[in-house]
Amino acid sequence: MTHPLRKHIEEIISLTDEEFDFVLSHFEHIKKRKHQYLIQEGEIVNKEYWVIQGCLKSYFIDDNGKEHILQFGMENWWITDYESFVKQVKSKTSIDCIEDCELLYITFENREKLTAKMHKMERFWAKKSKIGRIALQNRILSLLKNSTKEQYEQLLEQYPKLFQRVPKKMIASYLGVSRETLSRLNP
Fold first, then answer.
1. Are 26 and 110 in contact (CB under 8 A)?
2. Tens-digit pLDDT profile for the chain (187 aa)?
3. Is residue 152 part of a domain?
4. What is the pLDDT of residue 131?
5. Structural domain of 60
6. Measured over all CA atoms, what is the biggest interatomic distance in the chain, rounded to whole angstroms?
7. Fewest beta carbons within 10 Å, which of 86, 102, 164, 171?
8. Would residue 99 count as lying in a domain?
9. CA quadruple 151, 93, 45, 57: dihedral positive or negative?
10. Beta bridge partners of 49
11. CA distance 147 to 75
12. Nearest to 56 by CA among 8, 105, 7
C-alpha cells in the first residue's frame, strides 16, 4: 500500500521509492488527542504539520476573548503558523485538535535541508504555496463580496465533510458570525 504522504506529493511531482524514503526520513510522526494543542499563541514555531487523520483548527482570541477561526485542517492538509515558522517570530495563532489526530511534521531545518538536496520537493512546496495563496485570496474575496449565506453555501459546497466533523459554533466562528446567525441560515 502506498504511503499517504507519497500519494499526496505525487499529485504534484513523481518520486522513486528511494526519493520517497529520503523525503520521509525528514519527517516525524506524532499523534495528538482531541483538545490538545499543536501550537499556542506566543510560541516560536519550528514545525509544519501534514494531517494524516483528524481535524484541527487554527485560530486567535481577540482582546474581548472571542475566538476567530482562520483555518481548519483535515486529511492531506498542511497547517502551521506560517509567519512564525518562516520568520521564527512569536506565533499569532494557536492550533488545536478538534478530533484525535495523526500527523507528520517537518522542522524548518529539515525542510530547508530537503529542498536544498532535492529540487523536486522545492517545486512541490512552491506549488503547494501557490495553491494556498489562491485559497486565501478566494477566502478574502468571499468575505468582502459575499453575504454570510453565500459564504456558508460556498463552504458547504467546497468542504461538505467539514460540516459532519465540526460543531456549528466553529463554522460560525470561521464565517465571522454568531451561532444564532448561522442557525437562521440553516434551520
1. yes
2. 889 999 999 999 999 999 999 999 999 999 999 999 999 999 999 999 999 999 999 999 999 999 999 999 999 999 999 999 999 999 999 999 999 999 999 999 999 999 999 999 999 999 999 999 998 899 899 889 999 889 989 988 988 999 899 998 999 999 988 888 878 876 5
3. no
4. 93
5. 4-118
6. 54
7. 164
8. yes
9. negative
10. 79, 105
11. 28
12. 105
CB-based burial of residue 98 (10 Å sphere; 0-12 exposed, 13-18 middle, 19+ buried)? buried
**Helix, strand, coil shares, percent, the chain, to 5:** 45, 25, 30
**Side chain identity at residue 76, one-letter code:** N
Residue 83 lies in a domain: yes
Distance of CA 143 to the CA centre of its chain: 19
| One-letter amino acid of 64 | N
Q: What is the tally of structural domains in the chain?
A: 1
**Structural domain contains residue 78:** yes
Residue with cell 512564525: 84
Q: Which residue has the cell 434551520?
A: 187
Q: What is the pTM of this model?
A: 0.91
Provide the pairing of β-strand 37-39 with 67-73.
unpaired
The owner of cell 456549528 is 168
43 grid coordinates: 510560541
- What one-letter code names the amino acid at 62? D
